[in-house]
């Protein structure tokens, strides 16, 4: 709310507004157009309520008005409803229904007074449609038809203008004339535009003068100064105000910002920052390399700052070129041809820069181009030698002797020092070293015999090396073509397979032959064919030279038989046309075949005389194979019979070396599972066994065992091990890999005697272990276990 009014004044305003809206009516709350005014109707002569109900209409109204945003403490009086049926005796009550009935609007059922109990907002809802009816208080039956009326909320200025599209962004070209339109702003006011000036808006500019102005009624923003320069200032922020009540005092206002950007136009020509530029460049700079970069400054941006560079006329045209770098708008000078310090050591390039997109409105500013001079100084470098002819072609005869001179190459030092040159051949291009070059004179000569048929052209890379600086190496190419001589005799073009039918007729063509020659005479090949002198007068075949480097082989007779001669060999002499002429004799094999009526070979070669059965040689071969198989089977059976039990079980075999250790003192018979240790039952048995073996080897002397018994134990044991080793070496059933067999014994000097159970293998008698009980509690348990073991049934 923009102001405050006391409740009494507000009620008076409401009544005045209500009376104004009812002007011209017959009475308050009635419609003069209907011809029926309040109080105009009368009761029926009978005076009954039925007559009143049958009355067409005795009270009407259209609309009421109420001010929005009422702030009083009491309900706001809207108006009064009254029917002429109401006699004031309390028999009629008024009922209100429709939008806001009971929640916003209330009615006094006795008097018909209508009040608003809440603050109303026209911007939220501008009017309310209600229905009023007079009913009998006792029966609740209507005494008048239901009538509809509207309560309109009367507007006050309680909403400020708002810029719904703000803040604004706009652009205008720089240097625009005065009054150029920039953008139009618009503000809306939620108040009633049909009532008063609450929604009538006036625009003004608060911030942004003197550069821009705004039209008060339209909101169009225009430039207020001419020739605003983007390069000086490119952006302005304006504050625009919209005020209702036609801008009068007490009106509400709203503001928005407008950002105006000056867009660029091409109003600045390009200008070089310097008129002269200095650059140095090495004469060894590769072609198409960048020599220098120059740039003309342009205060404009975007397409207005794009420019083209070009070289003005001069002797450097064709040696250099300039183009525009589209990203940086620099002029890039590029080398097109090699530089030579000795020829020319400096260049002065005149360069012009011109805008691409010129605006004709700003031609008065001046020419949109500029000139600059770039001086290039060429720096001397130590260059490699240069061959006078980069590609030299030479020829040499195929029969040239070693040391024959072919030609001479020449190179020079382009530098002012004019250093001496040494020549050599890049051996990667002459791996077989067919040629040499004289290091001082550059004369190329042959170093080996040449063969045109192996290599007709030699491509050599020649090196020219400075004497003072060997790192400076120049390269040239020598193409040496080997000229052909007639050094290859002609031969058959292919290996012919000629078939001769037994039923061939005399004079029949059986083969056409041709020849090839590795040589390449300038006038082409010409071959001459004839039969070699030994068979020139044979009675079987003849040869006809076709004079086109081919020849035909013909039969002289018929009646050829395979049984008589299965193959004929015909020597053919071929002579070429070279100088001197070369010849060769080639043998043509003709196989006699059995042919069908169409001359298609069915079978060829010699005919076998034994139609069935096998030859004696074949039978002997078969019998030999059978005997060999029988011998192999007998050997396998014999070897299996002699095979002993393996020292290591099959599932425990391994391709690696095995070490089997026995560290237990007396494991009993189970220790002998892997090895036969019967011989180690006791030292006495070892003595006896070893003595028997020695006795057998010495011829049966009866004194040997007694002698061995007198030897020390370790000597006897050593002899026993050596004896076992010899036996294992000759044993064919021994494992194919190394194994370690360990033999150990208690010895004969122990007080307790031997504890090993190995002796049980050499005796069938029962053992008594009672003596173990005398050794203490620990051994008593062992004696009980041994007794239980020996007495238990097997």
Q: What proportion of the residues is helical, as a percent range? A: 10-25%
Write down how many β-strands occur, each being a DSSP E stretch of 2 or more residues: 43
Low-confidence segments, ≥5 residues, pLDDT <50?
Answer: 1-60, 647-656, 669-681, 700-706, 757-765
Sheet having the most strands: 5 strands, mixed
Oligomeric composition of the shown chains: single chain
- Termini Cα gap: 125 Å
Q: How large is the share of residues in beta strands?
A: 25-35%
Return Rg in Å. 68 Å
Overall outline? extended
Classification by helices and strands: alpha+beta
The total of helices stands at: 7
- Report the mean per-residue pLDDT as an integer: 78
Topology (SSEs and partners):
Elements: H1 7-21, H2 49-54, E1 63-67, E2 76-80, E3 92-98, E4 105-107, E5 113-116, E6 127-136, E7 147-154, E8 168-173, E9 181-184, E10 202-207, E11 212-214, E12 220-223, E13 235-243, E14 253-263, E15 271-272, E16 276-282, E17 290-294, E18 296-297, E19 307-311, E20 320-325, E21 330-335, E22 346-355, E23 369-379, E24 386-387, E25 391-397, E26 405-408, E27 411-412, E28 421-425, E29 435-437, E30 443-446, E31 457-466, E32 473-483, E33 491-492, E34 498-501, E35 509-516, E36 528-531, E37 541-545, E38 550-555, E39 567-575, E40 583-595, E41 601-604, H3 616-642, E42 658-659, H4 683-698, H5 704-709, H6 713-729, E43 739-740, H7 777-791
Parallel strand pairs: 1-7, 8-14, 16-23, 25-32, 34-40, 42-43
Antiparallel strand pairs: 2-5, 3-6, 4-5, 6-7, 9-12, 10-13, 11-12, 13-14, 15-18, 17-21, 19-22, 20-21, 22-23, 24-27, 26-30, 28-31, 29-30, 31-32, 33-35, 35-38, 36-39, 37-38, 39-40, 40-41
Transmembrane segments: 618-637
Signal peptide: 1-29
Pfam family, one: CADH_Y-type_LIR
